[in-house]
Amino acid sequence: KYPDAAKKTGIQGIVYVQFIIEKDGSLSSPTLLRDIGGACGAAAIEVVKKMPHWLPAAQLGRPVRAKFTLPIRFKL
User: What is the CA angle 71-14-1, rounded to 5?
Assistant: First the structure.
């Protein structure tokens, strides 16, 4: 859902959120790397928190933790 504050002021752009994909595929430690204002950063963090489990990274056939940066585009 597009934040109302961003809609009113016409804010558009890309928000970057970084998080860790755990060995079981769950997401942890969402961090905002770049925000464009208008509550878009908070909306992006909420989207990441509500995501289902991902497939974990693998190294030598074993699941490992991995850090991932996700760009989220806000466009009116």
Answer: 90
